[in-house]
Amino acid sequence: MDKIRTTNTLLLVLVIPVVFYLLKTLSFIFIPLVSSMFIALLFLPLMRWLGKNGVHKVISISIVIVLVLLGLSLLAWLIHLSSKQIMSPDSTFFVQAEEKIRGLKYSLEGFFGVHLGNEERFVTGILHKDNLGKAFGFVGNMLSMSLTTTFFVVLWLAESINVQKLMNATLLKQKHTSVKTFRKVEKDLIKFIKVKFLISLGTGIGIGLACVYFDVSFPIFWGLFSFAINFVQMIGSFISVIALAIFAFVEIQFMGTLFFFVLSITMVQVIFGAILEPIFMGKSFSINIIAVLVMLMFWGFIWGIPGMIMSIPITVFLKIILEQFPGTVVIASLLSGNEPNMKK
Known about the structure:
Blueprint: H1 2-25, H2 27-52, H3 57-86, H4 93-112, H5 122-126, H6 129-157, H7 163-172, H8 175-213, H9 219-229, H10 235-251, H11 255-281, H12 289-322, H13 329-336
Helix pairs in contact: 2-3, 2-6, 2-12, 3-9, 7-8, 8-9, 8-11, 8-12, 9-10, 10-11, 12-13
């Protein structure tokens, strides 16, 4: 018996790195697959409601696709507005940025007594054709990933891929337990995604309004940026504040005004991220802060930015699964930071 247990442990040690290697290598498949599962979960209640009212599944899926396309169209329109705002010929930001960067360069050269390189236009360097080519390549990859994700969303909603049946066949082996677990996963993840979306939306609107009030350029862009980066748990808010503070340093001439602007955007992040989000999330998402950081680094290493965005939903999913087995309850309790419940 001990030999069998040792063999299983060794096999597990060998299999886990292989699984992680495959997750990283085949990220172009797994990222759309996992993200589409979370998106499909949002629309499952709508699908059930339409089904109860006699709407055919094909029509229900078509309605969901139309809603997704409307959301993408709204996002594309906002991106168009922000890009139009940035590239406007009336914008004086780039000229101010060149002057500030040049002045900062001269100050550092005078202080340290060294030459920091040839005179070169910083913004022109950013807008170099090679960098623009990389940007267009990134947009192309995002478009391809979005189409693949949409395809997988349709498969989830059409139940061509059934999570509950998959869990029943592979992990839980009991229909009642698998249904109960799937319902909990669905309920918790839907709650997480809804709350995170609304909190991020409120943060983006608050940041955009602060930019308008303090006359900081490109408020639509910064609102969109804050909305998007806020989906990266914990570090997203820091990135947003730091990036916008550096940007505002170029435009705002008076240090007192700059201080109050930075204070305002920090308060927006604190109100939405540190106060409202924990209240709306509740105790069901009490995940150990160390576990959050570890999962952010791990999934960020495996899948990059999409992995960082999905790290908390994946952790919640794993925690719920681990709670179903007596042997892994301790691991689930470590993730949540609660006392292990061994009654299961």
